[in-house]
Structure formats: C-alpha cells, structure tokens
Amino acid sequence: MIDSPAIFGWWRPTLLLPLGLQHRIGSTALRHVILHELAHVKEHDVFVNWLGAATQMLHWFNPAVWLAMRCMRRDMEHACDARVLRHLSANERTDYGNMLIHLSDANAAEPVATYGLGIADRHSDLKERLIMISCLRPTPNGATLLACVALAGFASAALTQPSIAPRPQALSQTASSPAVPPTDSKPRMPDANQAPNSPPQSRAEGVPLQKLVEQVAANIHRRVVVDSRASSSVILYGQKLDQVDYSDFLTILRINGLTAVDINDYVNVVPITEARWLPLPLMAPGKELPPDQFADMSLVLKNACAPSLVSFLRPRFAPYAYVAVDANSNVIMAIDTYANLKRVRAEINELDARTRPGIPCGAAAK
Predict the structure, then answer these.
(1) What is the C-alpha to C-alpha distance for residues 143 and 158, in angstroms, rounded to an integer?
(2) 99 part of a folded domain
C-alpha cells in the first residue's frame, strides 16, 4: 500500500493513488496531484531517475553520488511544481500549497522507491517548495523571447571573438625574461556594500513572527502571545498579512514548526512539539475545528481490539503527533491536527464496523 501519489514506469507510465485519496483531499486537490504527476511524465523524470539509480548502485560507496541523487529528485519536484503553477491562478496556488502540506503529513517515513516518483517524498523539502510557490511569478512571453534573443547574441559574441596576434616586442620580452607582475598593480577593493568574507546577499525569506502575530491579532480581535522558544521569523506561502484569518494562521505556523492553542483567553503560539502538553480542545460529535488546529481525540471501539490497531495507526500520524491505547477500556487516544484526526477516526470506525463482534480483546492483548 502506498501513502502518497506516485508515477511508475517510463514506457507505459502508471499513476498510483492511495485508497480513498479523493475523499480526503477533494476533487480540486486531486486535479493538482494529477497535473504534478503528468509533469513528471512529460519531462521523462522516471527514466532520468533510473539512470541516476544505476549510477548510485555502481558508486554506492561515494557519498557525493547519494547527495547528487537527493538534489536531483528535489530539483525534479521543484520543476514539476513550477510547470503546474504556470497553469494555475493566484488563488489556486494557495490550494496547491495546502495539498502538498496534507500529502506530506500523510506520507510515510520512507520515500518512494527509486523506480518511481512521488509528489511528497520528503517532509524536510516541503518548506523550500512552499517558498518557491510563494515567490514564483509568471513571466510574460515577450520577456522570455527577449531574454532568449539576448542570450543567443551574447553566446554568438563570446564564441566568435577574433584571434589577436601578439606584438613582436611582447614575444621577444617573453622569450628573454620570466613573467613579472607589473609594479603598479593593485589588489581589487571589495564592494563597499558587502562585508568582507561574506557570502553573496540573497533574498530575505519570510517575515518576523512578531509582525505576523500583531497583524493576526488585529484580524481576529484576539490577544496573541508568543512562547520564548518559538522561532523569530516565519515563511508565508502567498497570503497577504491583512488577509490572514485564524485558519490560515494555524497553517502558516504548522509549516514553520509552530502551532497556536487557546489558554486563559489568550492565543498562545508554541513549538509544535509542545502542543501535546497543553489543554487542547476535544473532538466531539457536531463540533468543527479549523483543519490545522491541534485537538485531543478519545475513541471507544465496539468490536475491534485497540491494541491490535497500534501498528496500523502509527504511520497515519505525523512525527510530532501522539497516539496511545488503553487496553482495559479498549480506547484509542490521539493528539494531532483536527483534519488528520478526522481522517483517522473515519478509518478506525470503518475497521471497527467490519470486525466480527465477540473477539476477546483481553486475550488478544496478552
């Protein structure tokens, strides 16, 4: 069973989808998934990946080859994201980013095998892909044509430089004495705007967390406090600060390793690994929460034995989530985002309904 959409085969490519994916992510996100995988097919990425895997097998002892393979697969995903985004509107880009987040959470710990290409192989690359989605801007056809003409002209000028014969005086001086640097040569002065030994300046990524918090507090009319262990800056993926609601705020925090919890009339921003220790809202019938809101679930099984489902359930949760079983009361307890808990609860209820009643859970647990 696969946990993430993947394309297999090069001569006759086949798209494999996890069971029930359309019901979990919706038809719009499923369209984005298919567009991404078709981009892999159009670029022949599976064949290129096979060649890389063959090289990796021959040079298995060389760590540079392993690193190059990982960078190649990452670049493939970025290229496919860029190809899909050229066919989407500005509003659909946010939906595309949300689709990547949900698939990354549901993805297994191990990446897709080397003979296939998945859409969310590595959770660690998600942040970089979301940055690319937020910064990508469509390039006008006229600008593209002008850039191609300029590049062709530069290449022609560089490749057709005439050869200049050296002067006779220079030839005689070269033959009689070794080359000596001129006495009036001076070392190049560094750029005044760049500090010594500093790398080239790059585009600033993200916004200060405090700026985001102040704007969100004004948007939702709530008091927001930040834990001292939270990071100082966050990455957005296409939203404007004055349009960020509480649901968007939770999503932005989660992709940056943070979350928000209501405590004593305050919205507290804390590291996502600390959420399980805080008073979280309980999942209850008829009570809806934002998709990325952390919640606490307690589910009593009627037919199936809770201890026997532990190995099945654990891959369904993100690494920062929590899941436990009480064998005496046959209860499954979990802490995760509301969207994931809702998905897992539906799977558990389906398994519980299919289980034959009367199984002695105490004997099974022993």
Answers:
(1) 22
(2) yes
Structural domain count, the chain: 3
Q: Which domain holds residue 220?
A: 207-277
Tally of residues, the chain: 366
- DSSP-derived secondary structure for 296-332: EEEEE-SSS-GGGGHHHHGGGS-TT-EEEEETTTTEE
Pull the structure tokens for residue 207.
Answer: 């916004």
Residue 153 lies in a domain: no
Q: Quote the tokens at residue 270.
A: 């804390």
Residues 65 and 34 in one domain: yes
Instruction: Map tokens 């002892």 to a residue.
Output: 61
Side-chain-side CA neighbours of 2 within 13 Å: the count stands at 20
The CATH number of whichever domain residue 255 belongs to comes to 3.55.50.30
Angle at 308 between CA 304 and CA 314, to 5 degrees: 115
Which DSSP string corresponds to 262-286?
EETTEEEEEEGGGGGGS-PPBP-TT
Where are the extended beta strands (E) located within the chain?
6-8, 14-16, 116-118, 207-208, 224-226, 233-234, 258-263, 266-271, 294-300, 322-326, 331-337
Enter the pTM of the model.
0.47
Out of 135, 153, 182, a domain closes at 135
For residues 240 and 303, state if they share a domain. Answer: no
Condensed to tens digits (0 to 9), the pLDDT of residues 256-275 reads 889 999 888 889 899 988 88
Report the C-alpha gap between 282 and 285 in whole angstroms: 10
Alpha-carbon span 92 to 98, nearest angstrom: 10
Given 103, 135, 167, which residue is the final one in a domain?
Answer: 135
CA gap 81, 84 in Å, rounded: 5
Q: pLDDT digit string (tens) for 191-219?
A: 444 444 444 433 335 788 888 889 888 98
Spans of the chain, pLDDT less than 70: 1-3, 105-125, 136-145, 148, 154-205, 359-360, 362-366
